[in-house]
Amino acid sequence: MAKRAKRTWLLYVIGIVALVLIGGAIAARQLIAGQVIWISWAIRTCALLGYLCVFVASGSALYLRELVRLFGRPFVKTHHVVTVAGLVLLGLHGLMVSINLSFSVLIPNVDSWLLFFTWGGPVAFYLIGIASLVALLRTSSLRKQWRYLHWLNYLAFFLATIHAILLGSEFRSTAMKVIPALLALALVAAFVLKRLQRAKLRAKRR
Ligand code: HEM
Ligand code: HEM
Q1: pLDDT at 2 > cutoff 60
Q2: Cα 52 to Cα 102: distance, rounded to the nearest angstrom
Q3: pLDDT digit string (tens) for 43-91?
Q4: Candidate of 73, 150, 153, 159 to mutate for ligand 1, largest count of ligand atoms within 8 Å of Cβ
Q5: Which of 98, 112, 148, 184 could be stapled to 161 by a disulfide with Cβ–Cβ 3.0 to 4.6 Å?
Q6: 66 vs 142: which has the higher pLDDT
Q7: Would the pLDDT of 134 be above 60?
């Protein structure tokens, strides 16, 4: 069988374009408001890029075959590039916020529901961490159950969406709040479609 060309570079190009567009837009907004404050620029750029990585990694599970064809390598390897980038960016986002404010923000805030959801970012990060860890262990003791735990990624994305809408400086206008809400709805659709896809596959195998 002919070897497929690896096109991982395409992922890096997409990453650089996203960094230039999102980082540039945040810097431009800060410049218009007065000056660029680099720490908040970095916190917001990492947050938005990391959030998009989680969205892309989750939605991409619907397109296993297409991704193998496009990138010329197994789905999991492509998934890894996006998920590792997401984990690093979100880790940096949380770390910079903690240094800037206090490390106590990493403890879930249970003073009220509103505060819990506003500060749901750290909880989302822990859920993504658990979901990634179980995926790494999927060939060992976890066997089939790993996938159910991997669904925590969807839950994490919803928590992160509410967190971004309630706390994000870039999401103050109603128009901007609509975008993450639409992304969250798209993931609900992706979850349902993924279940239909798998049911069809099972029926074919029988
Ligand atoms: C930011 C971290 C990650 C996110 C957001 C993420 C998200 C997702 C989502 C939502 C699915 C679809 C699950 C379903 O509906 O059944 C999926 C599938 C999958 N993920 Fe991840 N994932 C992450 C990290 C990882 C890691 C670290 C690994 C591997 C070590 C991994 C391996 C897989 C595999 C093998 C599939 C199954 C594809 C299939 O056969 O259906 N994921 N991922
Ligand atoms: C790890 C612990 C986390 C902490 C301490 C944290 C804290 C914060 C803070 C303080 C902001 C407001 C920043 C600003 O607008 O200047 C913020 C915004 C944001 N966070 Fe988090 N967060 C964490 C994790 C996450 C995770 C896991 C995600 C995504 C999966 C996420 C996504 C976002 C997004 C998209 C914004 C909006 C950025 C903006 O509009 O400026 N955060 N976070």
Answers
A1: no
A2: 25
A3: 999 999 999 999 999 999 999 999 999 999 999 999 999 999 999 999 9
A4: 150
A5: 184
A6: 66
A7: yes
Ligand 2 probe mutation, 97, 116, 176, most atoms within 8 A of CB: 97
- CA 133 – CA 131 distance, rounded (Å): 6
Ligand 2 centre and the CA of 167: distance in Å? 7
Task: Take residue 34 and report the two structure tokens written for it.
Answer: 């007065």
- Tokens linked to 199: 């049911």
Ligand 2 — pocket residues by CB below 6 A?
40, 43-44, 47-48, 50-51, 54, 90, 93-94, 97-98, 105-106, 121-122, 124-125, 160, 163-164, 167-171
Q: Which amino acid is at 89?
A: L
Amino acid at 154: Y
Q: What is the DSSP string of the chain?
A: -PPPPP-HHHHHHHHHHHHHHHHHHHHHHHHHHT---HHHHHHHHHHHHHHHHHHHHHHHGGGHHHHHHHHSS-HHHHHHHHHHHHHHHHHHHHHHHHHHS-GGGGS---S-HHHHHHTHHHHHHHHHHHHHHHHHTTTTTTGGGHHHHHTHHHHHHHHHHHHHHHH-GGG-SHHHHHHHHHHHHHHHHHHHHHHHHHHHHHHHH-
Task: Please tell me the distance between residue 175's alpha carbon and the centre of ligand 2 in angstroms.
Answer: 19
